[in-house]
């Protein structure tokens, strides 16, 4: 991180990454002419993370090798975790061994990768245990997200206060504030909406920010505004998981025809077969088939 008073040459790259503008983060990073080896390494971290977010796992797996810096090695592990479901169990077992030994708590990339994997495995307590070892703002933000996932709004509020004390103006802190307000609901939904809107106006209206706004609108019963935001998000990324999930939910809430809802659900099944909503849908289908079979046997 840059010293106080120094210009952060990676500021635009980080901002694009945090708001979900991944291709722009990569493009911006490739334009930079950096001389400082630490800045070059930090740039590479964000570039590879952006490729992972874009599901371009092969780039990361092929380019990071045994001689790559230790800060980059965990990113290959993360790309392998997401790209190969059959290897996930082995990757988690290896991770269990890594965190039980002596880990470099200054390597925040490893902490973020480990916590991200545990988060995706629904091992939230372990994710928090890993992240608790760092004061890096990204680690704090992921802690807050994990606490919200665990329905621990009380802990998330405390974490937000810590983030605001570290850097109140940071994009990550602003996003964290919006996530907390979104979870609180009620009149706080409008505050969250304005935060997402302000970030979109200052930077770019990404699918991530538009989904944030749409979720606020759904919570306020403003279904037309929510649909408009989600259609904009769909144009930016037709396979964005959050967009498709929100469109499925919105289709049901706003009384769309079953065909419309099923269309979005089919897209979600294609693009994110491991999503909890997809798994729940398949489980209900199996239950229905079992029930139907019982009726056909007794009929």
Keywords:
single chain; 299 residues; mainly alpha; Serine Threonine Protein Phosphatase 5, Tetratricopeptide repeat; 3 domains; 17 helices; globular; structural molecule activity; TPR-like_helical_dom_sf; Coatomer_esu; TPR_rpt; membrane
Account of the protein in words:
Oligomeric complex that consists of at least the alpha, beta, beta', gamma, delta, epsilon and zeta subunits. The protein is mainly α and 299 residues long. It has three domains: 12-84; 110-184, Serine Threonine Protein Phosphatase 5, Tetratricopeptide repeat, CATH 1.25.40; 189-298, Alpha Horseshoe (Serine Threonine Protein Phosphatase 5, Tetratricopeptide repeat), CATH 1.25.40. The protein is built from 17 helices and no strands. The protein has helices at 11-18, 22-31, 37-53, 57-63, 73-83, 88-100, 108-120, 124-131, 137-149, 153-167, 171-184, 188-202, 207-219, 223-236, 241-253, 258-271, 276-298. The N and C termini lie far apart (70 Å). The model has no long low-confidence stretch (mean pLDDT 91).
List the helices and strands and how they pair.
Elements: H1 11-18, H2 22-31, H3 37-53, H4 57-63, H5 73-83, H6 88-100, H7 108-120, H8 124-131, H9 137-149, H10 153-167, H11 171-184, H12 188-202, H13 207-219, H14 223-236, H15 241-253, H16 258-271, H17 276-298
Short description:
This protein has 299 residues and is mainly alpha-helical. The protein contains 17 helices and no strands.
- The gross shape turns out to be globular
Instruction: Summarize the biggest pleated sheet.
Output: none
What share of residues is helical? over 70%
How many domains, as an integer?
A: 3
The share of residues in extended strands comes to: under 5%
Q: How many angstroms does the end-to-end distance come to? A: 70 Å
- Please provide the count of β strands: 0
Please work out how many helical segments DSSP would assign.
Answer: 17
Q: For this structure, what is the CATH homologous superfamily of the largest domain?
A: Tetratricopeptide repeat domain
CATH architecture term of the largest domain: Alpha Horseshoe
**Poorly predicted regions:** none
Output the CATH topology of the largest domain. Answer: Serine Threonine Protein Phosphatase 5, Tetratricopeptide repeat
User: What is the C-alpha radius of gyration, as a whole number of Å?
Assistant: 21 Å
SSE-based structural type:
mainly alpha
Q: What's the order of the H and E elements?
A: HHHHHHHHHHHHHHHHH
Average pLDDT value?
Answer: 91
CATH class category of the largest domain: Mainly Alpha
